[in-house]
Specification:
about 300 residues, Nitrilase/N-carbamoyl-D-aminoacid amidohydrolase, six-stranded mixed β-sheet
């Protein structure tokens, strides 16, 4: 592994989207990127499906063997609010990344350019404003499959971007429970492991600590904060929204160091930008006794292959 730049000022953005409104949410994201950049952030990480939102609690009228016309209307509204890549929203985020002089990781719901499928995707922009990485969630979880398709494009499985602080890649939400998906990133030597998600349960905190210890990398746990009152009041599926708890997603965003300790404590029940200065020497030092894809491997008895490019 080549030498890493010694210090990184990073920002995790626990923010609230303007639900179902991609233009307004993109404007909010641009403001937050500018704010983090003004505070010296060199890496700015947003949650899963920040644009246009994570439609927590909604079913879009799906039941086993049936759909509803009202659900189709809510789905079409979500479809219209989803992001084309490239498109006007990615152009604005790229410009904001360039103005801030920072890497920016942004979770979106992506609308495919040529078909009608939606994907849960994570984009990474470089400090010159270029879109360097598009990762599509390889397996949506549970009822997420009502809206998001599996990724079938190998270039979107486990892409990484080379940074001055080492390779950086992402897995979205429960992809992080897939051991071999994690290995695919470890094999690429990630020192910066991004985990955008919508998990505010206590067990998730154990998961991200384990990943940091297993991969001996910095883990960026970034969640949304939104409440029931933030949903549009004119959805067809209003009864489903009314059943949600008041604090629908309470956050818990934090950064974990390569030894599995909180570099920043989890933040709950508010929007915030969390800044931290990372000591990148901790990454190679932590690999001294355990290098998951290096001296601790046994390729003679354990075989692994990944179908990406």
């Amino acid at each position: 592994m080549r030498n890493l730049k010694k210090k990184l000022r990073a920002a995790i953005v626990q923010a609230s989207p303007i639900l179902f409104d991609k233009e307004a949410t993109t404007s909010h994201a641009v403001e937050l990127i500018e704010e983090a950049g003004q505070q010296g952030a060199e890496l700015i990480v947003f949650p899963e499906s920040f644009i246009p939102c994570y439609p927590y609690g909604m079913t879009f009228g799906f039941t086993v063997g049936a759909r509803t016309e009202a659900g189709r209307k809510d789905w079409k509204r979500y479809y219209d609010a989803s992001v084309l890549v490239p498109g006007p929203e990615t152009e604005r985020i790229g410009e904001a990344a360039k103005k801030a002089g920072a890497y920016v990781s942004m979770g979106i719901t992506e609308r495919d350019q040529t078909d009608y499928s939606l994907y849960c995707s994570n984009l990474i922009f470089t400090p010159d404003g270029q879109l360097a990485v598009k990762h599509r969630k390889i397996k949506p979880t549970g009822a997420e499959r009502f809206i998001w398709a599996d990724s079938h494009d190998p270039s979107t499985y486990f892409p990484t971007v080379d940074t001055p602080w080492g390779p950086m890649g992402s897995l979205i939400c429960w992809e992080n429970y897939m051991p071999l998906a994690r290995v695919a990133l470890y094999r690429k030597g990630v020192s910066l492991y991004l985990a955008p998600n919508t998990n505010d349960n206590p067990e998730w905190q154990d998961t991200i600590k384990h990943i940091a210890i297993e991969g001996h990398c910095y883990v960026f746990n970034v969640d949304q904060y939104f409440t029931r009152s933030m949903y549009p009041g004119d959805l067809q599926e209003q009864q489903a929204v009314d059943r949600l708890k008041k604090e629908t997603c309470s956050g818990g965003s934090c950064i974990i160091d390569p030894y599995g300790h909180y570099l920043t404590e989890p933040v709950w029940n508010k929007e915030c930008i969390v800044l931290a200065d990372l000591d990148m020497d901790a990454v190679p030092m932590s690999h001294m006794e355990f290098d998951v894809e290096g001296h601790y491997t046994r390729p003679d008895i354990l075989k692994f292959s990944v179908e990406d490019i």
